[in-house]
Amino acid sequence: MLIIGSLWKFVDLVRAPHDRLLRTLVSCLLLLLVGEILSFPQMIRAVDGLTAVGVDKVAYNAVHMIGVYVLVLFFLSSVLGASAEYRRQLNVNTALLAVVLISLATCMIATPASMRAHTLSTPHMAQPAIMSFYVIGNLYYIYVYLTAKLWVSRCARMASRHLALGLWTMVVGLFGLMIAAVNRLIWAFQRIGEPGSREAFRIMNSSMTDWALSIVLIGICYSASVQMFLCWKSALHHRRMYSELTPLWSALVAAYPDLVLNRPEASMWSRVRRPRAHERFYRRLIECRDGLVRLSPYLTRVAPHADLAHGPPEQTAKYITEALALQPATEDPEMALFAARVALPHTNDLGADVGALISISHALRGRAS
């Protein structure tokens, strides 16, 4: 799931490389993925074989901690923006992470070389350096999971219904990870006096950690899926309206070719990186409005007493056809032309404006057929 999520959001980042929040989320997923890879037994043996025993254990804990820290920053930035409170939280969390990472490395260095391959099942838990490693690490995990849970909860309360469902799913997973960290801390203390005890508890807690992390990733992927669906829905809606404006746009552009903004053909990579459905729609909408302004003096000639601003679309389409026939091939630059209001929406919003123009466009298509 981490691989899928990382690839998915990396593709989004390629399309929007300047999105700071998206860069943060991709960094978080990649760090968590690398942390999981470093925790595999085969990877532990390989890294320790190339470096020294214990290096991989410090490395994968550090990478995973940084990944969750970046997740906290993502939601901090989502809620607080670039405010002074965000900078304060950033400084506090960065300083705490630095202290923890230095402490873990120090504990590993202080551990006798023969014991540095320790796990929670080690019979040497009473060694101060080993005990400190697990206490410091799990206390930080408890803190960072709890902090992430609180900030994700704040985002969920502010989000739309579908997006909030994914965020609350993340909250459940983060709570599970926090409980697993508490269990590891308790187990570490219990093993000081009973070195070989409670192996079944360790296995159960390890399974809980895997499930909780999966739930967090499901929440992230669900929220991302909702956003992607809404983006696709918006793009398809704009593509449909772009097509519906074609009859009106074609008629106006035939009379006023200079309305069209000529742009160089985009490369295939540019089209993949930055889909232009929204841009093309808004450009066509502007060109239709500009064309009606240019044509409006002739509309007032063919229908001097008509209500061009609020008339029925069929009647307005008829006047547009007549005005286009009246409009000369070349206009006298010295001639004074006065614009009139045409096809004004009943409410002052973009959707109503588009609807008014599409109604006229449909009427023009009907007249042409």
Topology (elements, then pairings):
Blueprint: H1 2-15, H2 20-38, H3 41-50, H4 55-80, H5 84-110, H6 128-158, H7 161-193, H8 199-244, H9 246-255, H10 268-273, H11 277-302, H12 313-326, H13 350-368
Written description of the protein model:
This protein has 2 domains: 2-226, no CATH class; 245-368, no CATH class. The protein has helices at 2-15, 20-38, 41-50, 55-80, 84-110, 128-158, 161-193, 199-244, 246-255, 268-273, 277-302, 313-326, 350-368. Helix 7 (161-193) runs antiparallel to helix 8 and helix 9 crosses helix 11. The chain is mainly α. It contains 13 helices and no strands. The longest helix has 46 residues, at 199-244.
Briefly say what this structure is:
By secondary structure, the chain is mainly alpha-helical. Helices cover 76% and strands 0% of the residues.
